Each structure stands twice: as structure tokens, then as C-alpha cells.
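Let us work through a complete example step by step.
Step 1: write down the sequence.
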Amino acid sequence: MIRQPVVAGQFYPGSASQLKVMIEKMVDAEAEKQEVIGLVSPHAGYMYSGPVAGAVISRVKFKDTFIILGPNHTGRGKPLSIMSEGKWQTPLGDVEIDAELAQHLLSISHHLQEDDAAHAFEHSIEVQLPFLQYFRPDVRIVPITLSFASIDAYKEIGREIARAISDTRREAVIMASSDMTHYEPHDVAARKDRQAIDAILRLDEDELFRRVEEHNIS
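Step 2: predict the structure and record it as C-alpha cells.
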């Protein structure tokens, strides 16, 4: 299956040449690269969040595969879903799904279900791909959409992802696609971001979940 782009020409330019020009203005090709296990990147229209996404991805040492976790904005399909084969198309070309890793994750997961419908019109993963392609055209992905579930389910999915990476001996980066806050003043957004980031850096998922709920970090 080839998953067609649904927000090209809306969230980002629909032509390859215009898209490359825009991305070039948002990335730092000279930035020092860092070894990372995971990162958070925003998924709004590029005119809003593109500079942040570009700054983040510019500083990442690329690995074989990016496992991209995005929210399910549309409500379509299964609430916890994965695509385990096929390609995602953007104006810059096709991005192949890492089928071996995705199918192994699906086979060991107690929560994730195969479901193309959940991904068909969801933008949160799609908007990350051109930035990845800009730096590495042959990058592969494992796309996962998440809707509402318990903290225990999320934690188990995290352990399943870690096990799948280990079992398949993959070099992988886990990318959380999240806008963090919406329609709030800068000082409020910055405060909420810091509350979440502090918990993330401490690797304290329970505290992160508590702060998201308590402070309505979206």
C-alpha cells in the first residue's frame, strides 16, 4: 500500500522544489549532531512549527529507522494502530515502512492493531517525513497512531517498542509528534512545555502523565 499525502499544499508546499526551499530555511546543516534515543517534534503547519521541527531534526544523528508516534486527530480506525508494510508518499518521494521491525512489534504487542484507516487522513506523522527525507532520502519509518488509553497501556507499548528494537537489532530513533499546547500565550505555552520537558528528561512517565492531565497540556 502507498499512503498518499493528505496535507501537502496545506501544511507544507505541494511541490518538491518549493518544499526543499522552505525546509532549507528551517534547518541548520552545520548544527552539531547528537546521539538520541527519542525526540519530540511539533506537527502544525510549517509556517507555524516548521522552524522548531527543523531545529530539532538538524541536531539528530540519523539511524536506520524512525518510529513515529502521532496522535489520532481524526478518530478514524483503531485507537492504537500501526501500519506494518507499504510506503508513505510525500512530494520528495516515498518513505518505506520498516516492515521487519513493524511486523515484529505488531506480533508481540498486546495493544497495537494493524489499521491503515487510522493513518489515511492523519497529518501528525506525515508532516515529519519531509524533514527526515531532506537529511536522509532512504530513511525508513514505523508509523503508530495513538488515541486515548490508560497510562499502563502506554507504558506497555513503550516496553514493547524497546523489545522490538532489541529483538531486530535495529538502530532506531523514537519520535513523538506533538504540538504540546494550542492557542495559548507564549508565556503559558513555555511554562507548560517546561513542566512536560522536566518530567521527560527524568524519564518519569507517571509524572509526565500526571502533569499533562493536571495542567491540560495538549
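Step 3: interpret the result. The chain has a mean pLDDT of 94.
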